[in-house]
Amino acid sequence: MEEIIEKLKSILKKYKFLHEYSWADRYFVQKKTVKKLVFYFYVKNEKYVVLGLSIQWTAILENYPMLKVACDESGVSTLRWKIFSLDDIEKKWISNIVQIVAKYFWV
Description:
This protein is an alpha+beta fold. The protein has one domain (2-106): Aspartate Aminotransferase, domain 1, CATH 3.90.1150. 37% of the residues lie in helices and 35% in strands. It is built from five helices and six strands. The chain has helices at residues 2-13, 60-63, 66-70, 86-91, 94-106, and strands at 18-21, 25-31, 34-44, 48-54, 73-74, 78-83. It has a six-stranded antiparallel β-sheet with strand order 1-2-3-4-6-5. A hairpin with a 3-residue loop joins strand 1 (18-21) and strand 2. The longest helix is centred in the last third of the chain and has 13 residues, at 94-106. The protein is globular.
């Protein structure tokens, strides 16, 4: 699990997200005085890591509908990917998804 977490941190560190830790590693963008949660990840039952993308109050799915298709679970406010091994990061195109989302928030 530690290798997966370190890999996710290295992928997300490339972009200008604000980072906090409480119940999970959380990554935000700040627009004026408001912080918007973008990504979070945490370990679920020591079996896998959940990477979540907050889609609440965004139109990201209108611009990138394939995000909903690519995720393992979709809710009203989040999309989630279950990562069981380091190979899943490549197989599920996580670094490409992070790049797309980062461009969405800074363009």
